[in-house]
C-alpha cells in the first residue's frame, strides 16, 4: 500500500521528491533500463504529480520490474496484458495518470492486439516501450523489433522474421502522440515523457534501449553515432486542425521508416484535436468524471450498488406491473 502519510510528511518538510524506492535495482550494469527509470522518476517529479495520482503498469520482462522501483501505485501484471490492466484502471479512475511500461516482446508480440486497441480508443494512457530487440529476461531470443537477417550473439542463426515498426503501427492504430527516444539521453527522454503525460489521448514512446547482455549489435556507441533530434531539423509534429491530419499522419509514417545511418528521435506526431474515450463516455454518462466507477458506493453488506429506487428511475419507461396471484 502506498505510504501517503509518509509522503505528505515529506512535502511538509520540504524534502526532495524523487520518486525513488529503497529497493535494489537488479538490472545488468550498463542496461538502458536505468536511463528509462531515471527519466520516468524525473519527469513525474517535475510534473509535480503526487505518487497517489500515478499508476505504473508493467507486463513481464526485465522492464516489468519498473513499478517496483518507482514510488507510486504500481501493478506488475501478466505477459502482454499491461494495456488491458491499465485500461481498466483508467476507465475506473479517469482522474489518475496511468503509464504502461513494457518490453518490445511484451507489447508488440503477445500484447500486440491490445496495443492496437488502445490507439483505436484514444484513451489517455502513456505507453513506454523498452525497445532492445530481444527478450532479455529469457536469454535473448529475437523480439518483434529485431530486423530479419541480423544475428545477435544469443541467436544461433540470423533472424528469419521481419520486424514490426512500433511508430508506424501506433500511427496507423490511432495513437495521437507518437515519439521515439534514446534511453541514454535521459534529459531528452524525460522531456518527451512529460509531453506524453500532458497530452490528452493515447501516447506511445518507443525507447531505443541497449541490452548489454544479449544484443551486441544495437549498442550505446552504435546509437550515439546515428541518433539525431527531429526538433533540431525543424520538424513540426502538431495537428492544429483536423483537416491537417491526413498529411501530417502520412509524413510521420514515412519518417518512421528512416533507419540506418541516421535515426530520428523526438515527437513524430501529436494530434490534440481528437476526442479521448473518456470524453466520449462522459458525453453519454454526464456523471462519469465526477463519479467514476471506482468512486461509486459499494455496500459492505452485499446489497446492490444501485438500489430499487435508482433502478426504477433508470428503467421507468420499461417497467411493467405484474399482478400477484394467490
Ligand atoms: Fe537489461 Fe538486457 Fe540485462 Fe535485461 S538482460 S537487465 S534488458 S541488459
Ligand atoms: Mg525486449
Give a written overview of the molecule.
The chain is α/β, with parallel strands linked by helices and 326 residues long. It has a single domain, classed as Thiamin diphosphate (ThDP)-binding fold, Pyr/PP domains (Rossmann fold). 33% of the residues lie in helices and 15% in strands. It has 11 helices and 10 strands. It has an 8-stranded mixed sheet with strand order 2-1-3-4-8-7-10-9, with helices on both faces. The longest helix has 14 residues. The protein is globular. 41% of the residues are buried. Bound molecules: iron/sulfur cluster and magnesium ion (MG). The site of iron/sulfur cluster (SF4) has 11 residues, from loops.
Number of domains: 1
Over the alpha carbons, how many angstroms does the gyration radius reach? Answer: 22 Å
Gap between N and C termini, in Å? 55 Å
Bound molecules: iron/sulfur cluster, magnesium ion
The tally of strands reads 10
The CATH class: Alpha Beta
Structural class, by secondary structure, is alpha/beta
Indicate the CATH architecture: 3-Layer(aba) Sandwich
Low-confidence stretches: none
State the helical fraction. 25-40%
Q: Per CATH, what is the topology? A: Rossmann fold
Estimate the global geometry from the Cα principal axes: globular
Q: How is the largest sheet built, in terms of strand order?
A: 2-1-3-4-8-7-10-9
Tally of individual helices: 11
The percentage of residues in β strands lies in 15-25%
Instruction: Say which CATH homologous superfamily is assigned.
Output: Thiamin diphosphate (ThDP)-binding fold, Pyr/PP domains
Strand count, sense and closure of the main sheet? 8 strands, mixed
| Average predicted local confidence, pLDDT | 92
Order of helices and strands: HHEEHEHHEEEHEHEHEHEHH
Amino acid at each position: 500500500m502506498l505510504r501517503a502519510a509518509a509522503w505528505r510528511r515529506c512535502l511538509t518538510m520540504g524534502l526532495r521528491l524523487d520518486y525513488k524506492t529503497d529497493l535494489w535495482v537488479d538490472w545488468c550494469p550498463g542496461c538502458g533500463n536505468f536511463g528509462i527509470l531515471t527519466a520516468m522518476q524525473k519527469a513525474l517529479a517535475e510534473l509535480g504529480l503526487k505518487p497517489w495520482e500515478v499508476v505504473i503498469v508493467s507486463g513481464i520482462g526485465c522492464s516489468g520490474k519498473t513499478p517496483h522501483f518507482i514510488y507510486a501505485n504500481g501493478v506488475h501484471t501478466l505477459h502482454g496484458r499491461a494495456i488491458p490492466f491499465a485500461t481498466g484502471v483508467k476507465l475506473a479512475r479517469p482522474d489518475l495518470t496511468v503509464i504502461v511500461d513494457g518490453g518490445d516482446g511484451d507489447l508488440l508480440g503477445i500484447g500486440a492486439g491490445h496495443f492496437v486497441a488502445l490507439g483505436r480508443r484514444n484513451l489517455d494512457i502513456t505507453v513506454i516501450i523498452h525497445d532492445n530487440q530481444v527478450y532479455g529476461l529469457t536469454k535473448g531470443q529475437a523480439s518483434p523489433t529485431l530486423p530479419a537477417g541480423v544475428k545477435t550473439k544469443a541467436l544461433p542463426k540470423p533472424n528469419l522474421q521481419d520486424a514490426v515498426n512500433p511508430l508506424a503501427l501506433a500511427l496507423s492504430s490511432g495513437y495521437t502522440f507518437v515519439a521515439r527516444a534514446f534511453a541514454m539521453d535521459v534529459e531528452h527522454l524525460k522531456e518527451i515523457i512529460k509531453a506524453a503525460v500532458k497530452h490528452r489521448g493515447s501516447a506511445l514512446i518507443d525507447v531505443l534501449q541497449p541490452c548489454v547482455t544479449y544484443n551486441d549489435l544495437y549498442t550505446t556507441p552504435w546509437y550515439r553515432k546515428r541518433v539525431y533530434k527531429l526538433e533540431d531539423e525543424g520538424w513540426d509534429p502538431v495537428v492544429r486542425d483536423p483537416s491537417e491530419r491526413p498529411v501530417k499522419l502520412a509524413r510521420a509514417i514515412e519518417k518512421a521508416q528512416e533507419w540506418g545511418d541516421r535515426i530520428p528521435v523526438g515527437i513524430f506526431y501529436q494530434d490534440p484535436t481528437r476526442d479521448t474515450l473518456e470524453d466520449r463516455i462522459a458525453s453519454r454518462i454526464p456523471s462519469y468524471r465526477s463519479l467514476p466507477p471506482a468512486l461509486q458506493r459499494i455496500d459492505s453488506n452485499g446489497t446492490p450498488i444501485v438500489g430499487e429506487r435508482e433502478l426504477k428511475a433508470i428503467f421507468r419507461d420499461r417497467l411493467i406491473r405484474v399482478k400477484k396471484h394467490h
